[in-house]
């Protein structure tokens, strides 16, 4: 591929965004990508460039429904998200939603001219947080060399490097695990962000509890008592945390389990997995209880839903 074709292909991939570079004739863009269900994982290497949101023209609507997490490997990215500027260097993690990304500049490191990054992209609907919850985290550079940030970086790099060794079912499972890890990471950052958590410390604890639940959905023993013990609070206080929700603790757990089981039933990678095994994957011990709950939530049996999802075009 010529340098000009490489540039055009990369710009087309960023629909709704305008790409400029000082080296159009020598522009290089490459990397490794893996689709993990609804999650995209990539290692991207590009010539120094600037990306700006187009004020008119371009179809970037699908971008606006995405979150992205950027982790530089070589070089620096300077980004403007809303009215917030951030400089992100190797060892740091940067999260933003595409709807408010105004632009960014990517430059190489002292060792090499190209900018290289780990990149995660996924629909906003996969996370349990509202816009206000994430306002103190998005558009800011946070440390990624220890704790959950380091785990996220290492896991993402491993997935990108070993993508060719993963079957379709493995990719779907790892995509779910990656979303759970991102949820836990962001919940911790929300709590530790410089400004007070929206709603105060109690709301921050509720977010941490929700993240804990999401990372333990597969455990059939997950219960309000176990959750309360893990967070050193009483069961009654746990229930009070959920009073602002439209569901009780148990109902919230069941709802998230049903959502994930529904996603697996619609995934061709799990076509051969029996429905009772799909239910067991998400902590449902009794198949009959799962079928009844699924029908109540979605208006059809799991088998009917799977048949419809896997045979209906589009």
From TrEMBL:
GO MF terms on file? DNA-binding transcription factor activity; sequence-specific DNA binding
Q: InterPro entries, per this entry?
A: AraC-bd_2, AraC_XylS_family_regulators, Homeodomain-like_sf, HTH_AraC, HTH_AraC-typ_CS, Tscrpt_reg_AraC-type_HTH
Residue intervals of the HTH araC/xylS-type domain: 207-308
Q: What's one Pfam family the UniProt record gives for this protein?
A: HTH_18
Is the keyword DNA-binding assigned to this protein? yes
**Superkingdom of the source species:** Bacteria
Q: List UniProt keywords, sorted A-Z.
A: DNA-binding, Transcription, Transcription regulation
Presence of the UniProt keyword DNA-binding in the record: yes
Put simply, this protein is called AraC-like DNA-binding protein
Species of the source: Nonomuraea rubra
Task: Give the organism's phylogenetic lineage.
Answer: Bacteria, Bacillati, Actinomycetota, Actinomycetes, Streptosporangiales
């Amino acid at each position: 591929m010529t340098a000009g074709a490489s540039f055009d292909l990369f710009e087309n991939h960023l629909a709704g965004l305008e790409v400029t570079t000082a080296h159009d004739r020598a522009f290089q863009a490459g990397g490794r990508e893996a689709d993990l269900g609804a999650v995209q994982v990539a290692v991207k290497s590009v010539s120094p460039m600037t990306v700006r949101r187009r004020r008119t023209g371009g179809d970037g609507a699908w971008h606006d429904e995405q979150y992205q997490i950027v982790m530089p490997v070589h070089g620096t990215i300077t980004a403007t998200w809303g009215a917030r500027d951030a400089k992100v260097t190797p060892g740091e993690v940067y999260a933003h939603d595409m709807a408010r990304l105004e632009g960014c500049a990517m430059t190489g490191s002292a060792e090499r001219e190209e900018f290289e990054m780990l990149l995660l992209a996924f629909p906003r609907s996969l996370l349990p947080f509202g816009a206000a919850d994430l306002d103190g985290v998005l558009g800011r550079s946070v440390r990624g060399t220890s704790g959950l940030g380091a785990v996220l970086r290492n896991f993402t790099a491993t997935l990108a490097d070993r993508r060719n060794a993963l079957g379709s079912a493995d990719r779907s499972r790892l995509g779910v695990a990656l979303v759970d890890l991102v949820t836990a990471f962001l919940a911790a950052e929300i709590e530790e962000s410089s400004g007070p958590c929206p709603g105060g410390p109690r709301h921050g604890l509720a977010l941490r509890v929700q993240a804990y639940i999401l990372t333990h959905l597969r455990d059939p023993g997950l219960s309000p008592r176990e959750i309360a013990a893990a967070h050193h609070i009483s069961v009654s206080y746990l229930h009070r945390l959920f009073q602002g929700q439209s569901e009780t603790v148990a109902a919230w757990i069941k709802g998230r389990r049903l959502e994930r089981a529904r996603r697996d039933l619609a995934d061709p990678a799990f076509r051969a997995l029996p429905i009772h095994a799909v239910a067991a994957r998400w902590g449902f011990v009794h198949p009959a209880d799962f079928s009844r709950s699924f029908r109540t939530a979605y208006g059809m049996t799991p088998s009917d839903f799977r048949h419809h999802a896997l045979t209906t075009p589009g």
